[in-house]
Amino acid sequence: MREIKVSFKIKVLIPILAVFIVSVLIISFINYRLLASSVKTKTNANMEIFADSILAQIRHLNIILDATKQTLIEKHIAIAKTVVDILDGATGQMSTEKLLRIAQPLDIIELSVADSNGIITASSVPKYIGFDYKLYEATKVYMKLTDGTLTELSEEPRASVLNDDVGDMILGDINHYTGIARKNGGFVQIGFNAGVIGRLQKEINIYKTIEETKIGQNGFGMVLSNGFITARPNRDLSDVSPDVSGEDWYKTVNSGNGFAWLNIDGRQYYAGYKNENGSTVVALVPEHDYHRERNQLLLDSVMFLLITVVIITFVIYLVVGGLLRRVNNLVKGIGKIAGGNLDARIEGSYNDEFDIIKDAVNSMAGEIKTHMEEKLQTERKLAESRISIMLSQIQPHFLYNALAVISRLCDKDPAKAKRATINFSNYLRANMNLLERTEPIPFENELNHTISFLNLEKAMYGEALNVIYDVQEKYFRLPALTMQPIVENAVKHGIGKKEGGGTVTISTREDENNYLVIISDDGTGFEQGKIADDGQQHIGINNVRLRLSAQCGGSLEIESKPGAGTTATIIIPKTRNQIEAR
Fold it and tell me: Is residue 161 within 8 Å of 170, Cβ to Cβ?
């Protein structure tokens, strides 16, 4: 018998690595999607924490600002009334110089006098002389000071808007404008510098928080109000005009709360934004930072998977390598026995199912040798020895084939190889018991033995082999190993040669005089006249006929038709069969 040499790298490692590489790719893709979602969730959470922190400071700032504004407004109105009293008591034409002398000591940035038609007739800022308050919506409210509707008016402190050197709009100082009606008609508008409000904003640390806070590695935040950027880091977006009211991205962040990708001056940012009481807090993460964190997590995950694959491959190498060495040792020993060396024995100790196979094979070799020696010693035991030898002729051939199947399964599917090994050990254990039996055995024992054999065959043929059991009578006896050679022929010569496989059916019946065991297949069939010409392939069938005749007076009938299949009927006479008690 030729020893099977296993190329471990080709038959084990390469398939295992191929499977794991595909698994790594699939897992990496799934993990990539999960990590992308995880990074997004983490970024969103950081953005929400940042926005909530800034909004909390803004709420605190607004409380202080409201109180400060109220105090400031009351102070400025009081000053404005004093200025009006001075102007009403003054004689002569109002001039810029006179107004400046009044304004400068009181930190007034603009002191303008308007007539009852709302036109400025004198101002500390000459360019405002002739300005008509009726022409603009924002200033029409001052006309209520001329018709008696209001006696005093205080605007909300606001930042002035200026043009820089390149024409962009920028925020200037924060000013507060107040109007007081005059007794002789017209009104006075007084503008105060409300820089204390701007200083207060900085003291509340919104600018400091914005400057020092990072979202991720390079993310940052900013605060917007009424279409202007009111706070942002000096290092980021320093080239973007504060007036962003016309930008598409501003319309997005000013629409509510949420997350979105924004294009700000041609740069992509992932943004989270929240709006509260006229203030919009925006957290921004540059696109390359957003993807870099996700890709780094993905790389770490892939490295972990690769290390896991290497470790598992090494473990499989050790486990499967040991399994293959045991199988090869068994195949080598059985090959020597099958070659005629009945003194050969399988060496080694495994402490598992392989020990059962080894002991069974070694014991079988000894039994075969004993039977052959007994045959030569006495003619009286010739018939009994012939039956034992017939049984022994079957064993090595089938053992070699079965172990060859298990060897192949070790490469392809170790778990299935283990199940096949257990079935094979059960089969051999039954064979050892049958070697000493020269009388018929119960049909159920023979059927179980045949089922073990078919389980081994199915391990090799897979879905190509289908088996149907139709047992209607089971309380009778027949010679040991009567069904298995017939089933083996049905599988090997019938189903095995048919494209697409087929079905083997085992059924039992009884008539008035006999018990019948019918084994049929829908395989290729054969011409019955050629059976005798193929004695080597059908030696098992001849042994069955001899044992049926010698042990129970039975017979075997075979019918076959090419292309239609084969039916073998074992006939056991009732007159010579001891029926089991039911």
Answer: yes
Where is the domain boundary, 263, 293, 323? 293
For residue 337, tell me if it sits in a domain: no
Whether pLDDT at 56 is above 90:
no
Residue 60 near residue 204 (C-beta atoms within 8 A): yes
Mean pLDDT of 126-132: 93
CA dist., res. 111 & res. 104, Å (int): 10
Which residues are CB-neighbours of 322 under 8 A, at least 6 positions away?
A: none
Q: Is 125 helix (H, G, I), strand (E, B) or coil?
A: coil
- Which of 74-83, 268-277, 431-440 shows the lowest per-residue confidence on average (mean pLDDT)? 431-440
Q: Is 377 among the domain residues?
A: no
Whether 26 shows a pLDDT value over 70: the answer reads yes
Q: Which among 30, 10, 8, 28 is positioned nearest to 20, based on CA atoms?
A: 28
- The tally of domains found in the chain comes to 2
Q: What is the token pair recorded at 390?
A: 């017939």
Q: Is residue 374 part of a domain?
A: no
pLDDT at 521: 93
Q: Which amino acid is at 311?
A: I
Alpha helices (H) in 435-473, listed in sequence order: 443-461
CATH number of the domain enclosing 237? 3.30.450.20
Burial 141-150 (b: 16+ CB within 10 A, else e): ebbebbeeeb
The neighbouring-strand residues paired with 41 are none
pLDDT digits (tens, 9 = 90+) for 402-451: 777 778 778 777 887 887 788 778 777 766 666 556 688 899 988 988 88
Share of the chain above pLDDT 90, in %: 15
Instruction: Let me know if residue 264 belongs to a domain.
Output: yes
* Coil/strand/helix, residue 89: helix
**pLDDT tens across 290-339, in order?**
777 667 766 777 777 777 767 777 766 676 666 667 777 777 878 877 77
Model-wide pTM > 0.90: no
Q: Are 335 and 346 within 8 A, CB to CB? A: no
- Residue range(s) defining the domain that contains residue 566: 440-582
What whole-number distance in Å separates Cα of residue 79 and Cα of residue 88? 14
- The residues, any chain, with a CB within 8 Å of residue 535's CB and separated by 6 or more, are 542
For CA atoms 398, 400, 403, 404, the dihedral sign is negative
- Of 277, 293, 309, the last residue of a domain is 293
Cα dihedral angle (425, 431, 432, 436), rounded to 10 degrees? 170
- CATH number, domain containing residue 565: 3.30.565.10
Residues in the chain, overall count: 582
